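Hey, can you fold this one?
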Amino acid sequence: MDSFELNKVLGALLGTCLVLLAVHIASGTIFAAPVPAKPGYIVLVKQEGPTTPSSGPAAPPAGVPIESLLASASTQQGAQTAKECELCHNLGKGQGAKIGPDLYGVVGRKVASEPGFNYSSALKNSAIAKSGDGTWTFDKLNVWLTNPRADVPGTMMTFAGIDSEKQRANVIAYLNSNSDKPLPLPKTAQAQPPSTSPSKAPTSAGPTTPQAPANPPTPANPPAPANPPAK
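Sure. Predicted structure:
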């Protein structure tokens, strides 16, 4: 191939590159994306509508007293849920502490009092340790098992808590039964029926006929008879 033919080929390649470069520059100018004022991405989240209540029993509302939940709590289900506690606690009598203290007989026991375990100063000086008689009551355990770190900031317990009120009641009922002397479950207060005022006998719209007295009174001194006429 002579130099003339080679120059033609090189010229064609150069021309093609120039055309592609011009197209790229032109397309970038026409279809340039606007620069956002705030960098980031918009993530669209599907809004969930209100759920239709199922035919089954509804979950207890928030803030249900523990006395009401313990009335229907299941110690068997509580024992199943409490198996998660065995990662850090012993549940059997006389087994001693692990990462956490022994939980046998914990209901009714003094807070932060199990021998052989080094409790945190946050728990020793907490309100639950100083309120009342200083023991683990049903109410204290209910709040504690909801979120220990929120109940006692600074505690060494890293358990996230039990969100379900029903599961917490089951676990508390099981922990209470897991003792030499289980405490009697608190009784729910019986609602007193509203007092009613004595009803009044309805009166008829029409006039009533006066009733004659059963025994009319007799005068104490009857008047003397008048003089009889002369015959």
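The two ends are 192 Å apart (CA to CA). Let me know if you want another pass with a different chain boundary.
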